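Replying to the earlier thread about multi-chain prediction with a worked example.

Input:
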Amino acid sequence: MNNQINSILIANRGEIACRVIRSCKKMGIRSIAVYSDADRNAQHVKLADAAIYLGAASAADSYLDISKVIQAAKDSEADAIHPGYGFLSENAGFARALEKNNIIFIGPRADVLELMASKAAAKIAMEKAQVACVPGYHGTAQDNDTLIKAAGEVGYPLLIKASAGGGGKGMRISRESSDFEEALAATRREALRAFGDDQVILERYIERPRHIEVQVFADQHGNVVHLFERDCSSQRRYQKVIEEAPAPNLDENIRNAMYKAAVAATAAVDYSGAGTIEFILSEDGEFWFMEMNTRLQVEHPVTEMLTGIDLVEWQIMVASGEALPLKQPTIQAHGHTIEARLYAEDPDNEFLPAAGVIRKLVQPAQNQSIRFDSGVISGDRISVHYDPMIAKLCVHAKDRNTAIGYLKDALAACWVDGISNNLDFLQRLLASDPFTSGSMHTAWIDHHLTELLEHEDLSRELTIAAAGIFLQQQLQADKQAASPWNTTDNWRIGATATQHILLQYKDQIFEFSTSGTAGRFVIQSASEQTETAVECQLLSLNKNAFQFSLRIGQQDFERKMHCEHNSYCLVAETSRLSFNQLKWQASAEMQLMANTKIVAPMPGNIIEIKVQAGESVNTGDVLVIMEAMKMELSLRAEVSAVVKSVIEQSSGFVDADTLLIELEIETL
Ligand code: ADP
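Result:
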């Protein structure tokens, strides 16, 4: 059976919708996006050949509404629907409804989706296919007595899992029989709330395991292949953070046995399309089937970079009835690939997801070795309604160490301003010993969390930041003076300058003054009353970033600094510091250049207006407190001045760029 697919509706959003659209374009297929109120201006809408509005921002009213998605496919005359991951991708009812409407579902058959959606049913099917499953209980009898008895047989510690669960939710450890009933009740409640089904399974809790999954592919003609493994052991609270392939330090016999089991599992359910068989591997080398994901995985770029195969293209080919284009022996893996997930979340605040406008998103240059999959650009918004992922950064190199180096550089080249994110947390993960040595297990991040959240010495980093700004200003001054400054070590000898530097970090202001030449100077911190001698050298410079090294006392540091206007981000190997530079009221000339209009930097609520018209204010004084993106922002005076006017509204919502306060600088 061959069904030509000429147009595809992508029933998803964000990076995965953009990703699928890219393959459609490559294959000459018309792509149709769908969107909610929150996504009117989203990148996937702009990228697609056509876009259809679904409904309100909440997923239930848009991306999860089966009838609206089907209507959109009919209206746009789509031949097929690609569901991406999440949302309706594993929904058997959706696949059935598409079948009824003669629209091709790019994924496996509905009955396979149904089977694999239940962890209990999947395990029964796998046992039949003689694929080893984690020892446990997955029976239909769900009364307390049966489960307590089964728990005793499984042994402690054990894991209680919602049979319908996914995404790391609906799982609880029970360490001994005395806590079992309470954990069971809690898991059932959570399962019912999150998945509408309170059936549970019990599994032996494997201590310090690895999560290794095998990418499989099958067509409608009975061909099944694997596309090697991905090691997803770097997780936080059962959610993947870093994925890589090949799995480091994995015994070849185990690896090959996993491939064999994965292909057998796939064939056993007469699968078609892209799938992932997840295994759990114990410390002593035993592995078991955990579950099958019946869709494209978030981490599929790892496999694409490893094999050079476009998995979305294969999905489309299989869905249109074609045979798999390659046989197992011709599928090759090359080098090493690592992916890191960049999230809008606050690692310092229990990884609380963040929402709001990404003021600035700088990404590394993409090439054969670096891939940046994202659905947002500078100015776009991370919505509270969906997953807070900003991007996936994936690198490919000849070996693991080189790949780690590439990923470190690529992370340093990223700059996300305006929204909390995990960039520095990822930097610390990559530099951490369990990761560099390739000895990860699924709890390694949680076990090392305290040290992974440690920050560099703030006052030292601020001093380095101020030194970097001084260096930058001297460079600019030299450029403007058209001096023959064109190499990194050709400093203007003898030229001295004194600069005052005012940095705003969170709600605090730090004052520095520097004197000397750009290469060698003394920097004084007003708050700490310290004086530091610095030797500084520019290493590289491009449009919005520069790299410099500096020596303070006997210590050497190397830093990268992103900058635009007065926003900066200082990047060290395992940390980053975002701050603003405030203008200094040193000269009347500078004061005149200062910003006297205080506007709302983004839509939000006024919490407090701290000044009245006619009042005098000093540089750095807080004028207005706003709440935006769930954060409090203090808007400060950039100069000493008198308040000329204040917005009449004293609280409540204002749009971005609303003029809140106007200042007037008194002439000297
Ligand atoms: P989900 O469907 O929510 O993704 P999984 O069954 O795939 O749930 O498990 C997610 C993660 O939980 C795994 O990657 C692993 O880290 C951990 N896990 C699952 N089962 C076990 C187990 N039996 N013992 C120890 N850890 C487990």
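The longest strand covers residues 224-236.

Feel free to reuse this layout for your own posts.
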